[in-house]
């Protein structure tokens, strides 16, 4: 599948870790995430949600993951494990603030791995290498989900993995990445990431979706910001204009404006104007009809 900037596996893993630790934080201890879920390192949730119910991962699986990451054995005391069970019980009762009160959130320097023993109830301090090792372990299951798409190591894959990791479930974008056809599907995937992967219309999540979409790239140029030819410009305008009403509704809900979409479309419009309407004043919109075919590239 064609991507803008293919990477080696090593480059990809390093860039993915750096990208994700900015989005998720890189915390040395077990902490409460914004939803009150006990979490460790770069977003390793100790409890997962099925339907409306949280459940702890098995005690042995968490201990093994931490042991593998540190290179030395780690086990919970019964008191520590009971604390985790109490937190999950509170979450299932909808008492998020009470859950957070039992395990401190990660704020400030916490998010960069600075360790504060006074906030650690589990005698656990992961150094940088251990956090990265734990991240690789966690990401393995998500990478398996993406293996069926043939998406190479790339910025595009980083964006999709961030989305998958954040949502937890399989993003709808996976359905568009198939059969080495990313060029034709790029604008569809970009739209799914940017405007259709925030079902709760959470304004706090809006910035993350924008960054993920920018990382994926709307266009197939090296920087992802400009169309490489007329056909790509036409495809982007045609598709996104057909979604304008839905996009405007989404942006209104998250505190944005349609100017966001207009900015994304401008490079495509500029290319078409330069090639076909230079020195012509265009007061209205550029319309790309559904019946217009591809333009032969020289």
Q: Could you describe the 3D structure shown?
A:
The chain is mainly α and 298 residues long. The chain has 2 domains: 9-132, no CATH class; 171-276, no CATH class. The longest helix is centred in the middle third of the chain and has 19 residues, at 128-146. Helix 3 (78-92) packs antiparallel against helix 4, helix 7 runs antiparallel to helix 8 and helix 9 (230-242) runs antiparallel to helix 11 (259-276). A hairpin with a 5-residue loop joins strand 1 (27-32) and strand 2 (38-41). Mean pLDDT is 87; it is low at 291-298. It contains 11 helices and 5 strands. The chain has helices spanning 9-24, 59-70, 78-92, 96-102, 128-146, 155-167, 182-195, 203-216, 230-242, 244-253, 259-276, and strands spanning 27-32, 38-41, 44-45, 47-50, 53-56. The relative contact order is 0.11. The strands form 2 sheets. It has a 3-stranded antiparallel β-sheet with strand order 1-2-3. Strands 4-5 form a two-stranded antiparallel sheet.
Please give a quick description of this structure.
The chain is mainly alpha-helical and 298 residues long. It has helices at 9-24, 59-70, 78-92, 96-102, 128-146, 155-167, 182-195, 203-216, 230-242, 244-253, 259-276; strands spanning 27-32, 38-41, 44-45, 47-50, 53-56.
């Amino acid at each position: 599948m064609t991507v803008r900037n293919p990477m080696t596996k090593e480059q990809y893993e390093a860039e993915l870790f750096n990208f994700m630790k900015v989005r998720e934080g890189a915390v040395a201890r077990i902490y409460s995430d914004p939803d009150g879920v006990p979490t460790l390192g770069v977003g390793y949730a100790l409890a997962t949600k099925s339907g409306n119910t949280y459940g702890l991962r098995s005690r042995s699986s968490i201990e093994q993951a931490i042991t593998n990451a540190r290179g030395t054995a780690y086990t919970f005391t019964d008191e520590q494990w009971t604390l985790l069970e109490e937190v999950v019980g509170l979450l299932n009762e909808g008492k998020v603030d009470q859950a957070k009160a039992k395990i401190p959130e990660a704020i400030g320097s916490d998010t960069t791995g600075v360790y504060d023993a006074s906030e650690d109830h589990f005698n656990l301090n992961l150094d940088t290498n251990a956090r990265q090792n734990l991240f690789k372990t966690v990401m393995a299951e998500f990478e398996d989900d993406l293996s069926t798409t043939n998406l190479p190591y790339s910025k595009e894959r980083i964006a999709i993995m961030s989305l998958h990791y954040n949502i937890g479930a399989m993003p709808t974008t996976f359905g568009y990445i198939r059969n080495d056809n990313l060029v034709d599907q790029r604008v569809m995937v970009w739209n799914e990431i940017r405007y259709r992967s925030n079902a709760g219309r959470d304004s706090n999540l809006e910035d993350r979706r924008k960054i993920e979409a920018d990382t994926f790239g709307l266009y197939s140029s090296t920087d992802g910001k400009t169309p490489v030819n007329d056909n790509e410009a036409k495809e982007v305008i045609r598709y996104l204009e057909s979604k304008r009403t839905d996009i405007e509704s989404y942006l209104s809900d998250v505190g944005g404006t349609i100017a966001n979409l207009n900015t994304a479309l401008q490079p495509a419009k500029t290319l078409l104007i330069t090639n076909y309407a230079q020195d012509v004043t265009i007061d209205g919109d550029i319309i790309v009809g559904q019946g217009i075919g591809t333009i032969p590239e020289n």
